[in-house]
Amino acid sequence: MDFLETMARGIGRFRRDVFPRRQELYESLANAQRPKALFLTCADSRVLPSLITQTGPGELFVERNPGNLAPIYSGEAVGVSASIEYAITALKTPHVIICGHSDCGAVKGILHPEAVAEMPAVARWLRYGAEARRRLGPQATDNAGDEKERLQRLTELNVLVQMEHLSTHPAVQQAMAGGRLTIHGWVYEIETGEVRAYDPARGYFAALAEA
């Protein structure tokens, strides 16, 4: 079966079985949205924000890109910046979550720039993760270390760096100054379903329930 046909059948099941059960909710969302959080995560097909968080329609404003990157604010027209500004200024989202994940191809590209040399657009984009690689220190170039551990650490560092980048955005600065915004850093483990959150008091990522 062609995948487009598979999707069409899925839409049919949604219209027939899912939509009627929540029709009142969808009707209430038809002309307005009030999401509770901006969820900035990777474009990876294995990361499904609403499934992971068990949230429903209208609860998450989702921005996705390779590597869950939040570029430092500039006057250039950057799509991610527009999503951040709109979510915080227009929609008044009280939370921003930057969520990385295990086995991230973009993080692998940050660690091994040579792997994306033949994809110039990807290589340019991943430069927004260069600071995370720098903070990895000797591990960034020491191939003798455990690759999985290096990638896990770089994934965490990338989330922290993107949280810092986020704070350069005027909309974020204004909301933080007004005490109406909290920024969170998460890492989702695909193989276990665990989500670890950055605990600033302890300085590391811990299981979300603990954090």
Mind explaining what this structure looks like?
The protein is α/β, with parallel strands linked by helices. The protein folds into two domains: 1-32, no CATH class; 34-203, Beta-carbonic Anhydrase, Chain A, CATH 3.40.1050.10. Helices cover 42% and strands 17% of the residues. The protein has helices at residues 3-18, 23-28, 49-53, 79-90, 105-111, 120-126, 130-136, 147-166, 170-177; strands spanning 37-42, 60-65, 95-101, 182-188, 195-199, 204-207. Helix 4 runs parallel beside helix 9 (170-177) and helix 7 (130-136) packs across helix 8 (147-166). It is globular and about 55 Å long. The model has no long low-confidence stretch (mean pLDDT 95).
Portion of residues within helices: 40-55%
Specify the structural class: alpha/beta
β content, as a range?
Answer: 15-25%
Our count of helices gives: 9
Any idea what the shape is? globular
Distance between the termini: 45 Å
Element pattern in H and E:
HHEHEHEHHHHHEEE
CATH class of the largest domain: Alpha Beta
Mean pLDDT: 95
**C-alpha-based Rg, rounded:** 19 Å
Largest β-sheet summary: 6 strands, mixed
CATH superfamily of the largest domain: Carbonic anhydrase
- Strand ordering within the main sheet: 2-1-3-4-5-6
Estimate nothing, just give the exact number of structural domains: 2
Which topology of the largest domain does CATH recognise? Beta-carbonic Anhydrase, Chain A
Corresponding CATH architecture of the largest domain? 3-Layer(aba) Sandwich
Strands, total number: 6
Low-confidence stretches: none
